[in-house]
Amino acid sequence: MDTDVLTERQRSHVAAGSGEPGGDEYHSLVLYHNNPPAGRSRSSCPSRLTCFGGPTSAKDKGEKKLFGYSFVPLMQEDGRTLPDGTHELIIHKCEENTSLADCSRYLKQPFSKANLPSNNQTLKGTKESFWITSFLCSTKLTQNGDMLDLLKWRAHPERINDSLSKLKEIDGSEIVKFLQDTLDTLFGILDESSQRYGLKVFDSLVHIINLLQDSKFQHFKPVMDTYIESHFAGALSYSEYIFKYIIQSRRLFSLATRGQNEEEFRVCIHELFMSIRFFLSQENKGTSPVAQTQAVFLRTFPAIYGELLKIFTVREVAGFVRETLGSLPTTIHADCPLEAVKLQCIAKTVESQLYINPESRCILLPVVLRVLQAHMQEQRDLEPVVSEEVELIVESLLGVLLRTILEISNRPQSAGPAMRLQFQDVTGEFVACLLALLRQMSDRHYQQLLQAFSSKDNLRDFLLQIFTVFRILIRPEMFPKDWTVMRLVTNNVIITTVLYLSDALRKNFLNDKFDYKVWDSYFYLSVIFINQPCLQLESFSPSKRKKILEKYGDMRVMMGCEIFSMWQNLGEHKLNFIPAMIGPFLEVTLVPQPDLRNVMIPIFHDMMDWEQRRSGNFKQVEAKLIDKLDSLMSEGKGDETYRELFNSILLKKIERETWRESGISLIATVTRLMERLLDYRDCMKLGEVDGKKIGCTVSLLNFYKTELNKEEMYIRYIHKLYDLHLKAQNYTEASYTLLLYDELLEWSDRPLREFLNYPMQSEWQRKEYLHLTIVQNFDRGKCWENGIILCRELADQYESYYDYRNLSKMRMMEASLYDKIMDQQRLEPEFFRVGFYGKKFPFFLRNKEFVCRGHDYERLEAFQQRMLNEFPHAIAMQHVNQPDQTIYQADAQYLQIYAVTPIPESQDVLQRDGVPDNIKSFYKFNHIWRFRYDRPFHKGTKDKENEFKSLWVERTTLTLVQSLPGISRWFEVDKRELVEVSPLENAIEVIENKNLQLRTLITQCQSRQMQNINPLTMCLNGVIDAAVNGGLARYQEAFFVKDYIMNHPEDGDKIGRLRELMFEQAHILEYGLAVHEKFVPQDMRPLHKKLVDQFHLMKSSLGIQEFPAYVRASPVHFTNGSPRTCRNSVPNIISPDGGRGVARRSPLSYPAVNRYSSSSLSSQASNEVSNITGQSESSDEVFNMQPSPSTSSLSSNHSASPNVTSSAPSSARGSPQMAEKHKHSRENACLSPRERPVSAIFPNPLDPAQRAPPHQIGDTTLPRSDPNLSAPDKVRPTPSSWSLDSVKEGAPSFSDSFGKLLCPPVPPRPPYSVPVSTSRGGNGSGLTPKEFRQ
User: Fold this and answer.
1) C-alpha distances in angstroms, 683 versus 166, 572, 841?
2) What phi and psi values does residue 1175 have, to the nearest 5 degrees?
3) Tens-digit pLDDT profile for residues 894-912
4) Per the confidence metrics, is the pTM higher than 0.85?
5) Minimal CA–CA distance to 1211: which of 910, 831, 906?
6) Residues 6+ apart with CB under 8 A from 231
C-alpha cells in the first residue's frame, strides 16, 4: 500500500486483522522465486480509508512503484451507506508518477464489478480484483432506505404514508439507534397532518414503546425518559379530563339524538384510555412533572368507575380499569410518591362496586394482586406507614386470597394446553401475592389478625382454609421442577406462619373446646411438609445442602419439633388420633434425618401407653405399624440405622412401664419385620431373578403368616413369589406357591371382592381358576402326579354340579397327564447343602444352612459357581467341617457347599416290582424331608495292607423345615443328626447296594427295558474283576478272621449277614452271566468268555464250591427270609409257591434314592434263562427282593445304615390309619380361612418318631469304598429313568397331602389276571379329593 497517497487522517489505520495494531502499510505475502503477489491476503482498515493500492513489485526492492489502485465510496447516491458484506473491487492500472491525491480524478470511474454496465466488457474481463468486507458501526448513518425515507419525510412528502407503514418492518436495532430523531419525525408529521396520518403515527408510537420493553433494548429507555422530560413535561397539563362532564354530555346528546354516533363515542373512549395507558406506563424518577401528573390521575381515577358504568357494561368497565392499572410501571423508586398513590388507588378499587360484583372481580383480581406483589417484594425496611398498609392489606385481602386460591384449585381444569397454562398463570399470581403478603407480616400483624375474628367458628374456618391452602402450595405440581429456590421460600413462609398459628390452636381448640378437624388438618399439613422431596437435603450436593442449611436451616427438624410439642399438649385427646396418625408419623420417622427421628420416635411410646390405658393392650398400634411399614419400606424409605434407632429408643422408653413385657414383644416383632423388609427391598434391586430374591420373599411370606397372621399381606406376597417363579420358569415352585392361596379358599358360593388381578367373583369360581392355573403349571414343570390329584378334585366338583361338559374335559386332561408320565422323560436333579456364614449375609441367610434343589444338568461345580456369582464377595470354604464361632461372627461372607443325597420318606412304590421307572422317578426326588452326607475316615491305626479294617463313615442327616420341592428351591435345615457307621456295617451296605444294582440291571435286561446291554456288561466286569483282584477277599481278611470274631462278639449277626451277602452276590453274578450270555452281541463274546473265566476264579478265591441251600433256592429270594426281606413289610409279587397277591399301593407315594427300579422278570424270560442256567422257574423270585438301604460307595450319597436308623415299618405312612392321624387337617378344612390355625397352611413335618424311617437304596459311588469295583469301573451307570427338573419348595400342607395322605391316581395293574386283595379297601384309588384338601 502506498503511504504517499494517505491523508493525515488516514495514517495508522491499516491492520492485518481484527484486534491487530494499526499501521501505515500492509505487506502482502510474496514467495521466494515467485514474483507475483499472493492472493487472498487479509487486512483491516476503518471506513474513513477510501483509497487502496496493490502490493509493490519485488523486482526493485529499493524503489517503491505504484502500479494499481482500488476504491469504494462509503455513501451511496440515495444517502445510504455501503451495505455490509463482501465487495469485489476493480483494480485500476495507474501510469507512472500518477498522483491520487485529487480524488476527483477517479471517483467518477466504476469501482465494483457488480455495478459495471453490461456493455463494459473490458473491465469485466480483467482477472485482477481486490476483495473487501465491510461492516457499519454508526449512530448517524444507516443502510436502511425505509428509515432514511422516514427521517427525510419533508423532502419526499408523498412517501410519508408508505414510510409509516414500513416502520414496523424495520429492524428494532435501527429504530432505537435513531430513537430521538424518529420520535421528532413522528410528532412533526402529527403536528402538520394529524387528520391524515394521526392513526398511523399513533400505531408507530405504540410499536416503539413496545419495542423498548424488549430486554435487548431496555438500555435505550433513558433516551425515552430524556425525550419525554424535554418535550412533554409541560404539555400534558391540559389533558385533565373530567369524566363526569363527558359522560353527562354524552347521555344528554344521546337522548336528544336518539343514540346517534354511539359507536364513534365508544371508539373515542377506547382511544382515550389507550392514551392514558401510554401516559401511565412512563417511568419517572423523583418528583418529575410526569410523575406528579400520574399521581393526580390515580387519585381521581376510582371516582369515575360509577360514571362509566352508566354507559358501559360491568365487564367493559372492569376491562378499562384492569388495562389502566396494569400499565403502571412495575418498578418504582422508594422516594417516588407514586407508590403510595398506587396503593390508595388499589384500596379504593377493592372497595368499589366493581370489586363487589363477582363478574368484574374475577377480571380485576389478577392486576390487584400483581400490584400488591410488586409492592411487597421490595426488600427494604418498612416504615410505619408501610406497616399500616400491610395491616390494611391483610385485613381486606388475606381472606379473599385464601378463598380464591381454594376456589381455583378445586375448579376442574380444561383439557387444552392453552387453558392449562392460563390456569397456572392465574394461580401463580395469587400464590405469589399471598406469599409476599405473609412475608411482610410481623408478630403484631399476626396478633391483630387472630384477634380480629369475632367468634371461634370464624377462626376455625380461617385455620382450615389456610392449612388447606398450604397443602396446595407444597404440591409437587405447584411450581416447575427446577424452581428449588421458590419452593424453599414457600416452605419458609409456611413454617413461619404455622408457628404463629400453633399458639392459636393451643389456646382456642384444646380441653373442652377441642376440635378434631382443625388438629387433624394441622398434623396432616405438618406430615406432608416434612416429606416434601424438595426438603430432603440428603439428595442434594454437599455445596447446595450447605447453602440451604445456612439460609433456612433444616425445616424438617423445625416442623418435627413443633409436631412433638403440639402432641404433648393434646393430653387425653391423643386417643382421637390413635391409630389414625400412626401411619403418617411413621412416615415422618423414616425420613433419614437423625434429629428428626430422635424427636418423633418417642411419640410411638406415647401412643402405646395411651392405647394400653384405654384398651388394656396396644394391638391397634401394632397392626397399624405393621401395615404401614410394608408399604413405606417398599417405596425405598427406612434403613438399617432406623431399625436400630427404633429398637433402642422404644426399649429405653418402656423400661419402667408396667406393660414392659408386651411392649418388648411388639418392638421385637416390628424390628424383625423391618429386618425382612429391608432384606427384601435390597434383593429386589437386583436385575435377574435369583435365589436371594425368592428366598427373601419366602422368609417374608412365612413371617406374615406364622408370626403376624396378616392374611391379606400373606396373600399379596404369595402372588409376588408366584410372579418371581414364573419369571425364572420355576413352574413347579409356582404351582406350590399358588396352592397356598388355593388352600385358603373353600368350595362355597361366598362372594369375594375384587383383589389383586382377580375380579369380583364367588369363592368357588376363584378356587376353580386357581386349580386350573396350578394344574397348568404342574404340567409345565413335569410334575404330572400332583396335577392329577387336582384334576380329580375338580372332576368331583363338576360331577357334583352335573357339569358333565367340564367333567369330560377334566377327565381328558387327567388322562393326558398319565400319558405324559409314561411317555416323557424327566431329569433327575442334584441336591446341595449350602451354608451361609458371616455377618455380611442378609438376615434370612445369616449363619444358616439350607438344602437346595439344583437346575437341569447342574452338577456340584456349576452350582458352586452360580452361588459365587450370586454372592460375589463370598469366600468358598474348602472343607465340609462345621465352622467355629470365628466364622459365624466374621464381618465377611463364607459359603460352604457340598452335594447331599435325598432320603425318600417311603419305599412303598420304589420296592414294588412291575412299577415302571417313569413312575418311580417321581417318588425318588419329590416330597423329600431328609438328606444325607457321608464322610469316610479312618479310626485308629490304618492297615496299609487292608484299609477296610479301619474305614469308618461319618453320616450326617439333615432334616428340613419343609419338604422339597415346594415354594422355593431351597429350605433351611431344621435338624442335624450325626452318626458313625462301623467298617463292618459299611461293608454290608456296599455289598447290599451292589447286589441291588445287579438285580436291577438284570431285570431291565430281561424285560428289554435297556436299549443295549452295555450297562450290565460294565457292572459285571467291575464286580468280577475287583473280586478277582482281591475285592471280597479283603472283607474276608478283615472281618472273618478269628481275631476279629473274638474281639467283636457283638458283631456275630452282622458277620453272618455279610457272609450271606457275599454268597448272594456270587450267585447273582452267576445268574447275571447267564442272562448276559443270552443277550450279548457277537462282537462282545470274547469279553463274555473272559468274564465267565474270571467268575470261576472269583469263586475259587472265595472258597465257594457249592452255594448254600438258602442261596440255591433263588438267586435273589431267600427261603428262610433275608434280613432285608424281614425288615420290609411289602409282600412279594411272586411268592415261592407261585401264588400272587398284590397290595395296591400308590405310585404317588414317596421317592427313593436308587436310580434303577427292580421290576420283576416275566415268566417267559425266566423260563428262557432257566433253560440256559439249568435252574428251575422259581429262580424268578431272585428279583423280588426289596431294595437294600445301602449304596455302592462311601460318597456323599450314602444311605443310612439299617443299624443306625429307626426300624419303624415303611408301610406306616401309607396305612389307612394315617388318615385318622390327620383328622385335625380335615377339621381345619371345614373352617373359614380366618379360623384356620397356622398349621393348616404350614404344617410341621412329622416328628422323626412319627415319620416312618425310609429304607435307603441307591447306586451312588465313592472311591475306596467298594472292594468289588476296580478304578475304571467306579462310574455311575446310565440311568434308566428321569425325574423332575424345576422343582422347589412346596406348601407343607400340600406336600403332606401328597406325601402322607394321598394315594396313587391309578394303582399299578398286576401282571396276571388273578383276584386282587387290597389292604386299604375301597376302590384302590386312595384318599378322596376331600381328604386331599384336608
Assistant:
1) 72, 43, 11
2) -100, 165
3) 999 999 999 988 778 887 7
4) no
5) 906
6) 187
